[in-house]
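Appendix B, example 12.
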Amino acid sequence: MSTLPLRTLPLAATLPPDWREQVRAAFHATFDRYESLFQLLQGDEAYFKKPIALRHPLIFYLGHTATFFINKFVLAGILEQRIDPQLESMFAVGVDEMSWDDLDEAHYDWPPVQAVWDYRARARELIDGVISRLPLDLSDGWWNSPWWVVMMGIEHERIHLETSSVLIRQHALRYVKPHPDWQPCRDAGEPPQPELVPIAARQFRLGRDRRDPQFYGWDNEFGVHEARTAAFQTGRTLVSNREFLAFVEAGAYRDDAVWSEEGLAWRRFAQAEHPTFWVRGADGWRLRLLAEEVPMPWDWPVETNFHEAKAFCNWMARQTGLPYRLPTEDEWHAIRLQAGVPDAPQPVPAAANIELDHFASSCPVTRFAHGELFDVIGNVWQWCETCTYPFDGFEVHPVYDDFTTPTFDDRHAILKGGSWISCGNEALPGSRYAFRRHFFQHAGFRYVISDAPVPQLASSYYETDAQVAQYCEFHWGQEYFGVPNFPKALAESCVQAMQGQPMRRALDLGCATGRASFELARHFEHVTGIDFSARFIGIGHQLAAQGRIRYTLFDEGELASYHEHGLAEHGLSDCVARTEFFQGDACNLKPVYTGYDLILAANLIDRLYEPALFLREVHQRIVPGGLLAITSPYTWLTEFTKREHWIGGFKKDGENFTTLDGLHALLDAHFERIAPPRDLPFVIRETARKFQHSLSQLTLWRRRTDPGSA
């Protein structure tokens, strides 16, 4: 087996002469180490028995990382020929359970163990050949280079090196055996008394640059996040097994008050009474390692899921009266920066229990000092309060578009710092991994004491309602076929027509996802957006509160792409204070909605159940001399408006009666049309290759000022 350290390679615009050999060595060292992990399994049965019900059996993970290379190489156009399409399909997709009680009941006709080992040997030879022949061309940058996909495969296998080790650790002991390449730490004793260290307030920036990544990174590491943390205190060491024992012995696993609602549901389902790797023995507590149980090392870090870590903090807060909690992701970085731990690969050997440089297990919490603290990185992962979210400027990588986006659901908590087996990208402090809160990893925690509330970050949820997402793109996304953004162009037309008139208050009726409302707020003192759809109004509220929206568009069939836009990129951030959104019915508006200098009804009248009712009363809501702007493609449909309520688009007295005729008939008593009708084009994207290209007629009407017009 290769003994080459599993560090991530630095990336630069100018490559060293031995770059190709560095990549080849990293690939083989990672492939070797991954295969050696499976040497811990004892007998073929061990490959086919699930260690836990939520995951595939280990035969899947033996094949998965090799097929990942081939599948991604084919997708990226690096390879044309597959090795074994059947295996490359079977081993392609793992299990991401939504909850602790999701059972994977699918039945698979798994191949024999030797067949998978043979596949790995063929894949190794093919991947080595790709590395040998692939042109060293970085003219399009790292992110778009095929070499990025090569490193993606290497780093992906390093992730599964760790997650597979957790599954092996959860396997029945009869299925595993010790191995000389995977020897645990043998040092154990009593930990010191817990101490607190003050952490200064800080302001810093997080996020990698796709143009100059420096190291391989996953999509959620790129973009920009401006962090600001208040001063707080934190534990000098990770919480040890001894410190956590007090929680267990106090009966806190049966104390509902210290558990969150989700944590309590998990605890009851799992019937948990202590950490999952703790084992009650006749001679006292023992700890399950990869391939053996050992007497409890009390000075090692406790390993828990998020729920247990959070419950411990709640219990400590109740015991002491102090605001104990888990750190946020930003606070963890404040700890790292104060400790002087850089966002870079460790020296060899690492000054931490990380990257398999020391042990195949945890070790005492006082072994590796980082400034005033211990184990800022390494030993075990550290749970954070923060749910994973995308930085501003997030983009998925086209070759792995579902690496992170499925975790943007406010259910995946971030872990920081890495564990003893975290290698490559996982070992970089700037990496961003998240797991479901009930999930078990080689993870523990370090608490903080802080009066500062946990920031409510912008929702990481991606809007999936097809119609809402289409309108998000219509209002906030890219322009198609050279057609200008419709709500922006419409707002500009209204403002131009208002010149010389007061621009105090505007009403945007049928505002949808709010672009015209914000655009009008560039010029008006106050803008109210109203829409019948609460789903649309929710987007306006989110933009006003958080400044950004995220949504999913279907490209073809079930294939989707992920999009993110915000007010800042359109220069609209300053308009938030002048904009508000409400749900309402244009045909039955509350009396409070009156006194407007402008009412915009964009693509609204042919979607109202009784448009004439709206048009007969709208003058009451506009100040004398105020403007009514109406646009519509005049697409009358009975599913929205009963035939008897259409205001045009039919024969009357044997002659064509257009919607414009109907508008005059209903509005002329109180309005005068001030300009010829004008067509404004708009495009709505349905899929990557299907668009609605429409023309909406704009008519502008000024409310009469003579007394008889009211």
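DSSP finds 16 helices and 27 strands in the chain. The first strand starts at residue 196 and ends at 199.
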